[in-house]
Amino acid sequence: MKYYNTIPGAGRFYYSKPGKVNLKLYQGTDLKLVFDQDVTLIKGKQNVIIHDYNANPLILERNFDIPYPLDPSKATFDTDTIAYIRFVNLMYESEGHPTAMKLQYQYQYTLHPLYTNADKDAGLIPDGKKVGDATGDATKSAWLNLGTPVAFGESTGFQQVPVKKTTYIAQGAARIDFRIVVTAANGGVPGETVMDDVDWLLKINGKFYTDYWTITTGRYTTHYFAGIRSKATFARAYSYAEH
After folding, report:
1. DSSP assignment of 24-53
2. C-alpha to C-alpha distance for 90 and 224, rounded to whole angstroms
3. 21 with 41: CB under 8 angstroms?
4. What does residue 187 show for φ and ψ, rounded to 5 degrees?
5. Higher pLDDT residue, 57 or 201?
6. 106-124 pLDDT, tens digit each
7. Are 86 and 158 in contact, with CB atoms under 8 Å apart?
8. pTM higher than 0.90, yes or no?
9. Comparing 55-64, 165-174, 234-243, which segment has the lowest mean pLDDT?
């Protein structure tokens, strides 16, 4: 199992015996001690997320149980098209004040970017084209929920996401778009925390939030949504692991 770093910033990876572990963080060239807490780790792999120097860290267990068999409707040629993504809500309304809203992460992917073996078997590939060529009529899916709405410090857990490859190679990748909606039932306030009451898009520094990432088939990905909602310097981090 390969593990990749967090972007932006650098993670720290180490082994420890299960049980109580002391973590210290030092800041600046004068090595000012800013964090000193004990955490309890269990057997296995965990993410220890320090989001506030004065609060307990968030600990996420890394669960890599893979459902089998995979949904055959999401199959393509040469490799499957599945990636696994989980979303973690670490958004603050102001410094020291985590959001009270539950965030619904959503994604949108490209439909049918390449001709597949299924197209060949069905006689759908036109003359002059072959399996792996671009169809030229790729469109976007509807916006789909990634798990259920999550409160601050919660995770959706790993969810299956289709990755319709745009290159004909053994392991491929594709762009997937992401956004966040917050309905009234989950704390959304039109004009304040969300743009309006039509699509309930999350408002970040006066604009609705949207983003995209290149997602690779077969990888387990964690999206950390972290920062202060009202600031232009709002940061969101992205990390991924490969099983």
Report:
1. EEEETTTTEEEEEEEEEE-SS-EEEE---T
2. 7
3. yes
4. 100, 5
5. 201
6. 999 888 888 888 888 889 9
7. yes
8. no
9. 234-243
